[in-house]
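Human: If only I could read backbone structure tokens as easily as an amino acid sequence. Take your time, and here it is.
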Amino acid sequence: MANETVFTRYAGNPIITSRAVPGSNSIFNSAVVPFRDRFAGVFRVDTQAGNSEIHAGFSRDGISWDINPGRVTMTGWLPDSGTSGFGYDPRVTQMGRDYYVTWCYYPAAGPCIGLGVTRDFKRFRQICPVMLPYNRNAVLFPRKIRGKFATLHRPSDKGHTPFGDIYYAESPDLIHWGNHRAVMQATGYWQGTKIGAGPAPIEIADGWLLIYHGVRQTCSGMVYCAFGAILDRERPWKVKYRTAPYLLAPTELYEIAGDVPNVVFPNAAILDEKTGELAMYYGAADTVVGLAHARLRDLVSFIKKNSM
């Protein structure tokens, strides 16, 4: 199967640009979910003043978005430390009526992962940090695993991390996290520098479908691509299949040229259970948001046939 037949880019890409929020420089690496009879999401908005902020928004069709021009603010645990300052690369996971948001932010010690919750994408409550510094990348599973909440995360450093593997952790209450297990390591040609979990894992017949980003270091900078894996259903730290070739790589102008060139960074995936079609939202060149579609059966087949 040719790679191009797995994901097909939406013809109207990019679907979100800086025009969506006054005063923004770029909008990218954002996460969306089905919400009531429409869609909702949280968006990374980098301002013209150089701040990275998290904003909320809504859409009727998942393509045209109305994004709040004001950043998200949260009540709850240390509200001044989470979205009041530098925050970026959110993910959203639905569990029942609650929508949990994970994102990276910077207290004085360095990058860590925040956790918040909302039911209406208007009022948000910050729970606590999921991972202490240094960590840049985390997403929750949409249900408990073996009776506990679960997350995939990626330890890092203070800088533009030239390394990174994916780890699993669990919690009885979303506050106390432990029992960390290695899941996947950076390896190979296109994902040999670092990897990180993307959208919330999707439960399928074979286990958990995980779309993640992998990074290759080149003489002119890093190249970010999307990859796929299938994890064991009840032991998600066990990888059943993992692609060596990428699912989607930066080839279009809006993916190649931008604030950070050559980036495809998946943040959200929505599966239509009736049609079997999966919609993947991704940041492109750290500047805009793109959309691509795949048939679930084709995607799973590709991952299995091209596994390491």
